[in-house]
Specification:
Strand content of chain A: 25-35%
Keywords (chains A, B): Magnesium, Metal-binding, Molybdenum, Molybdenum cofactor biosynthesis, Transferase
CATH architecture of the largest domain in chain A: 3-Layer(aba) Sandwich
Number of strands of chain A: 28
Largest interface: A-B, 95 and 96 residues
Oligomer: homodimer
Strand order of the largest sheet of chain A: 8-5-7-6-10-9
Radius of gyration of chain A: 31 Å
Shape of chain A: elongated
CATH superfamily of the largest domain in chain A: MoaB/Mog-like domain
GO cellular component, one term (chains A, B): cytosol
CATH topology of the largest domain in chain A: Molybdenum Cofactor Biosythetic Enzyme, Chain A
Organism (chains A, B): Roseovarius litoreus
Number of helices of chain A: 7
Protein name (chains A, B): Molybdopterin molybdenumtransferase
Structural class of chain A: alpha/beta
Enzyme class (chains A, B): transferase
CATH class of the largest domain in chain A: Alpha Beta
Largest sheet of chain A: 6 strands, mixed
Chain lengths: ~400, ~400
């Protein structure tokens, strides 16, 4: 058996960052920017007022000082002239600070009488001027790779970048295999169950930036599997679920090998999800996941999601683990790395009492996979333990 | 001035849960399920093998016992007959456990010789049988409202639910106002800047389940604002950004009032984002946000996101706050609830040294809004403090 890290190293060797495409900024949220974005201007492009008030020369400011108001500066409409020492310009937030002035006295600190203003007795020290380039300057960079969030999108807009270069979305084909499966909405026979893994995995992988397709269920025949692989043509990653164990029914591996896959089987020292199959088939990477619903979803999180991130140019690395405090003591752990379905509430984590890998209801009630390393020593309540958020 | 909670109470009074629609399961991830889903079957629908091995009667199991193999049960293809005490059936994971058997001896514990098997000397206690209905039973419910995640989607599939009832996505119109703005990609005049708020807000609101549209920038004229509001027709929520302060340029409120909005102005005891305008205009709720980029995004998080959640039927509640430990001491806080741009790393939070509400670069570098309550006492490094994740 190999470790989770060794299995991941094999899987990363099957994929590479995909090519890139340009998307309009409005469609870039959640995408992975693949080339640095470079600011095309200073922000603000001019010294700008931070408040509504009156722009004056700072060395003329003192309690009770009087100024003549000679004009107005609003956002988008600056004051064109030069302002003298005893003069002021009515100014609004975001407007350029006029030549000859370097301070904004807020309107609350001013008494206005016709064209003249008198400053109050108590003035604060703040100039209320945002310097030109205070947010960013021409040439400042937002560095790639970066998963673009809402604030990034706003910042890119502000830099005057209407379109960004991002990694193409990995195209993923999902193939459930097995005579026991029917699609949701169909009527199962007495020995059959409903296909669920492809639905859960599609939601998971689409959510991290892939474009997953659920293919028709492949039956346990050569012809049906060949037809399914054929439909997967054009994908970057082909995922089969079920049929990859070492049992007598390992048709998936045989057919994939026939179709040219250089395959490898991995027994991974983990729970759930021991058996994996992986290889390359033509232009695509292929991975075979176990058919147990929870195993498939855990392997999706532990193995497939990092492959997707690698294809998106985010590096070939295990998903970063977080830590939380244990709710209660745990006995000695087992010989395999255990991904336990757990509830995390306010920094305290408790594994569910039911860890059978067939229980989707337990997985749906969990919000974290708590990880016990191989041969983990007994743990005490309050100990820090690692987890993956779900 | 009113508190953030008082402002939210006003805003919640403007919205209600939207009507519902049915979507196929493949498109339901991230949507808000609005009616309980009820399992249409037991899972597993029969007692099923948890391993590859041999199904036998448990009371015939002892070290060295011999059985005659009379058939095979695979997933999707059960064994039809009855199994006697000295008989066994070859069984694979997921197959129905045949009548007359209640235990699976794993293949590693069996020596097979033609049609007969002999059990090993050391056997574990596990029956390796998953009871019928062990995951869920007919009539078991997934309760609404619920934001559907990948494991929920898998569980719904398994329950044989091909489509789910969800809230319609709130339609949001985003209107930037101001003569100082141009769209990204356009060439700004000397006193102009690039519109960024609508782009950041669209990404934020789409990300929590809305369907936001960026309308053309409204200029500081009646005609331009009327045209923008006209384009917003059919929206559930109209958001204007800028032009809502109490200054001389409050055209937005005047035009909205002309168009029938019962408006209210709120000065909220918070930083950034003091001024808000809100009301109802025809079929839509309307909210006017401050034009400063960081203020607009913070108000999006603190006010608009909870309105969206209320429209999605998730309740009229403030976003739940999380807690982290302060990285360093903080002096006495101010008279307004302060949403500070901060970095959270491994449970420790540190506010950025630059908190000016114009700095998008600081917001894009932050991953949390750290919250200091009104008149917050000085804090020590290591104290717990509340935050909103970004």
């Amino acid at each position: 058996m190999i470790s989770v890290d060794e299995a991941l190293a094999h899987l990363f060797s099957l994929v590479a960052p995909l090519d890139t495409e340009e998307v309009p900024l409005q469609q870039a949220s959640g995408r992975v920017m693949s080339a640095d974005a470079v600011a095309r201007r200073d922000q603000p492009p001019f010294a700008a007022s931070a408040m509504d008030g009156y722009a004056v020369a700072s060395d003329a400011v003192r309690p009770g000082a009087r100024f003549t108001v000679i004009g107005e500066a609003a956002a988008g409409h600056g004051f064109g002239g030069e302002v003298g020492k005893d003069q002021a310009v009515r100014i609004f937030t975001g407007a350029p600070v006029p030549a000859g002035t370097d301070r904004v006295v807020i309107q609350e600190d001013v008494i206005r009488d016709g064209d003249s203003i008198t400053l109050a007795d108590a003035l604060d020290d703040n100039a209320y001027v945002r310097p030109a380039g205070g947010d960013f300057r021409v040439g400042d960079r937002m560095e790639a790779p970066r998963i673009l969030g809402p604030a990034d999108i706003a910042l890119l807009a502000s830099m005057n970048i209407p379109a960004v270069t991002v990694r193409r979305k990995p195209r993923v084909a999902l193939i459930s295999t097995g005579d026991e499966l029917v699609m949701p909405g169909d009527k199962p026979g007495p020995d059959q169950i409903i296909a669920s893994n492809t639905f859960g995995l599609k939601a998971m992988l689409d959510g991290i930036g892939a474009e997953a397709r659920i293919l028709p269920i492949a039956r346990d025949t050569r012809a049906s599997l060949i037809a399914a692989f054929d439909l997967a043509t054009g994908s970057d990653l082909v995922i089969t679920i079920g049929g990859a164990s070492v049992g007598d029914h390992d048709l998936v591996g045989d057919v994939a090998a026939e179709l040219g896959m250089e395959r490898a089987f991995y027994k991974v020292r983990m729970r759930p999800g021991k058996p994996l199959m992986a290889g390359r088939m033509g232009e695509a990477a292929m991975i075979g996941l176990p058919g147990n619903p929870v195993s498939a979803m855990v392997c999706g999180k532990v193995f497939v999601a990092p492959m997707i991130r690698a294809m998106l140019g985010l590096g070939a690395e295990r998903a970063p683990l977080l830590t939380a405090r244990l709710a209660h003591d745990l006995p000695q752990g087992g010989p395999r790395e255990h991904y336990m379905r757990a509830r995390l509430d306010d920094g305290v984590i408790a594994p569910d009492t039911r860890q059978d890998s067939s229980l989707l209801s337990v997985l749906a009630g969990a919000n974290a996979l708590m990880i016990r390393p191989v041969d983990d020593a007994p743990r005490k309540a309050g100990d820090l333990i690692e987890y993956l958020p779900l």
